[in-house]
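re: ur msg from earlier - yeah i can do the 1PR complex, just paste it... oh wait u already did. ok heres what im feeding in:
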Amino acid sequence: GASDSTVTLLDYGAGNVQSIRNAIRYLGLDIKDVQTPEDILNAKRLIFPGVGAFASMMDVLNKNGMAEALRAYIENDRPFLGICLGLHLLFESSEENGPVKGLGLIPGVVGRFDSSNGCRVPHIGWNALQIKNDSVILDEIANRHVYFVHSYRAVPSEENEEWISSTCNYGIDFISSIRRGNVHAVQFHPEKSGDVGLSILRKFLLPNSSITKKSFEGKATKLAKRVIACLDVRTNDNGDLVVTKGDQYDVREQTKENEVRNLGKPVELAGQYYLDGADEVSFLNITGFRDFPLGDLPMLQILRYTSENVFVPLTVGGGIRDFTDANGRYYSSLEVASEYFRSGADKISIGSDAVYAAEEYLKTGVKTGKSSLEQISRVYGNQAVVVSIDPRRQYLTSPYEVGFKSVKVTNLGPNGEEYAWYQCTVNGGREGRPIGAYELAKAVEELGAGEILLNCIDCDGQGKGFDIDLIKLISDAVSIPVIASSGAGKAEHFSEVFSQTNASAALAAGIFHRKEVPIQSVKDHLLKKGIEVRM
Ligand code: 1PR
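and the outut:
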C-alpha cells in the first residue's frame, strides 16, 4: 500500500499532466504512478487528470484493465479526484469522437458546447461556480473564479442531480463538479486555478490540515475577461536568455552598441506576475524561427522552473515546426511541442508555421492533416494550440485594391487612406506574406486552432492602445477565443478593448515589465467599469 504522504496518479500516457504533478509536489506530497490495475486498488487517494481525447482514453483504460479497477475503486467509495476527462469518464458515454462508452456510474451523456448560442468553444478561462451544500472540497470558494478549458461538458438532470456538487453557466448550465462520499470530480483545473485551486487540492489531499479562511471582495458570476502577461524571450549577445521587449518588434536599443533590450530574468518575472494576479503567462521565444528549440535547453529549463511555482496556464511559442538538426536528425513539430508540454507548458503557440499551413489550405482547399497545427491539436486537443498572428497594417484608398478583407480605419493613414488590410508576417515580422489576418484566422480555426493570439506590429510597444479595428474584425470572424495583444499603455486600454470588441483576453508586455501599470490596477479598473475579472 501507499504511505500517507503519497498520492497515486493515473497518467495513462496521453498528454500533459506535468501541471498536476507540480501542484501535488508543491503541496508536499509524493506521487506514485499507476503501473498496473492493482496500483489503483491499493491507492490511498487517487487522482485521475484526464487529458487528451475521450475515445482514446477509454480505449487505453479498457485494454489494460484499468477501467474495471477504477469502477471497483469508485464503487467502494475510496478517495478519488477526477479532473476534466476524469469527470466525463464517470458518465454513461461521451459524444467526443463517439458516442463512446464511459464507466456508466453517473446517468448522462457528455456532449459538446454549442457555439451557435453566442459562446466561444472551447470554453477557456476563469468562470464562477454555483455551489451546492455538501461539496466539501469546494467549501469557501463560492465567490471565486476557477480555470476551465474544454469543449465537452455534462449537463444536470433529474437522474444525476444527487451527484452534483456545483454547476457553472456558459450559455447553458453544465456540471462543474460532482461528489458522492469520497468520490470527487471537477470539470475545471484546480492545478491551474491559482491559490483557489491549490486550496481545493489541499482539501482533497490533506483533509485534516487546517485551512485559513481569507475574505475576498467581488463576486464571481460568469466567465471573466483574462489579463495575460507576455514575456518575449531571447538570447542576448552574452548568450543569456533574457526577457526583452521590442518597439514594433525591434528589440535592440537605439544606442551605439545596439544591444538587445534586457528587462529581466524569465523565471523570476513569470513568478512575480503570477503573484501579481496574472490570469495566464506566455513565453514567446522570439528567435525560435532561427534557432532550434530542442537545442535550446535553457527555454525548457525556464518552463520547468516556472511551472513548479506558477499555477495558472502557461503558454509557450516560438520555433514550433518540423526541423532537421545539424546531424541530419529529423524532429517533427509534434516532438517539439511534446517536449514543451513535458516541461510544463499548458498550451503551445504557433506563428510562422501556421501562416504557411493556412496559405496552403486556402490554395488547395484540402486539409492534409500534416501541418504542425493539425498534428498537435489532434494529439493534445485544440484547446492546447494557440495561433499567434503578427499582422502589419497596409493602408488602402479603396477596399477593392486587394483581394484580402479590409476595414474602414478609425484613424486615417499617412496619406489620408480610409481603409487598411492586415498583412500576416513570418519570422518575427521580417517577411510579409500574401495572406491577411482575417483569412488566416478563419483558416486556422478550421485547421484546429483553439485560440488566437492577435498581435499588431504597428502597435507593439507603442503604449497607445490596442488596434480596435483589427481586434473587432478578427474576434467577430471566428468562434474560438481571441487574445488581444500589442499596444497597452494604461489600464483604460484594457476596458476599451473589452467594451469595444469581443476579445476574451488582453495581453500586455512592456507596461508590466517596466512596472508602469501593475496587473492589480488593471483588474481594479476593469472591475470599476463593470467588466468581470478574476480577483
Ligand atoms: O514564428 O512560430 O517561431 O513564433 C515566433 C513568436 O515570436 C510569434 O508568436 C511572434 O509573435 C513572436 N515574435 C517574433 N519576433 C518578435 C519580436 O518582437 N521581434 N514578439 C516577437 C512578439 C509581440 C507580443 C508582445 C505584444 C505586447 N511579441 O507578444 O508581447 O505586442 O507588447 P506591448 O504590450 O509591449 O505592446 P514562430
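cool cool. The longest helix spans residues 297-309. ping me if u need the other ligands too
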